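I'll show one example:
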Amino acid sequence: MSIEYLGLSEIRGPLIVLEGVRDASYEEIVEFTVEGTEKKMGRIVEVYEDKAVIQVFGSTDEMSLKNTHTKLTGHPMEIGLSEEILGRTFNGLGQPIDGLGPIVPEMRVNVNGQPLNPVSREYPRNYIKTGISAIDGLTTLIRGQKLPIFSGNGLPHDELAAQIVRQASLGENSDEEFAIVFAAMGVKHDVAEFFRRTFEESGASSHVTMFLNLANDPVVERLITPKVALTAAEYLAYEKGMHILVILTDMTSFAEAMREVSSSKGEIPSRKGYPGYLYSELAALYERAGIVKGRKGSVTQIPILTMPNDDITHPIPDLTGYITEGQIVLDRPLHQKAVYPPINVLPSLSRLMKDGIGAGYTREDHQDLANQLFSSYAHVGEARALASVIGEDELSAIDKKYLKFGTAFEEAFVAQGHNEDRSITETLDLGWKLLSILPREELDRVNTKLLDKYYKPSEE
């Protein structure tokens, strides 16, 4: 039996305090009726004796201490799910906004999810192809992995996210079902429209489920959006046996919404004003990626975050790096050179890459080639630093070759068109073509048999 309460005790921004509450529980959904007609929703974020603090999904401007009726529903936030969600667009709370009517649910699921027992996890294997050489070749995305993209304001992470959605697949020879769950938090209308139009024009929208929380939507809704998206992904993966790639953008908006709500609650701030539980909140989202033993599907995550002032030591990228298995770093100097995507390969890494590439997965030369490209490009940085001091003309012949390799690597391997979808074979062959600029004796990270098979020195 649900109890209805008349009036409120306190209104503080998006938070409402209700006194005299019985049997309230954390994360419970609350329904408000304002002036007898307008309906609103909220969730309980704190319970103390007979007091409940409730976050309202929306504005509290029309609410007063006397004109509001409150009803506790007795259950946490749930969304109705079925396979119909593929190809549909929802708001941050999981309500359809594409004009195609409501979903007929097969089941209703708690959006807060359940932590995966580590024992029930299966070790991630098999790569996911993105068609982007800098990712597929050097920071390969593995099924069940969480691999964030660290970006900055003004860098083309939105374009990169859209390209990954358009091109991502399980590889050329896979016949398994693959779909994408895309969640945007705090994005402007033009950015949301860019994603929607891009997916429709490319034909990708049929296997994409979109959750959009716009910049003018309630801040509190931003905290729910990634949970709703991951719940949909888990349903498609573990109930329907599909391999799901989840793209979450922008996790910085999520963290800032958390900071704003935490401040409203009067909590003591931690680093840079963020609440002390930022780490556990991020972990609760990121750890919902993985493969479960005995289940056919998988959930893979690419969270995207913009680093304030391009500072990789900022709490959001710093804590994200602790939880996830690597990172892809976008670089402003490369962007200023008109390189797209401006992926700086040296600070980028994929910790699970070694277990999903090589013979039987991509090609037997993949790991050695990636090691050599990393090593050679690191040498390019040394040669450029030296050239800036003594001048390029004074460099040794081998350093000049490294400079040539570095320019070619950025312009041909890292850079590619917004609609260019490279196969893994094309990426690896391109890597060997670039290494041919360097003499064979410089390639000390590659097995001799692989050098004999793939290395063809340039004509110069």
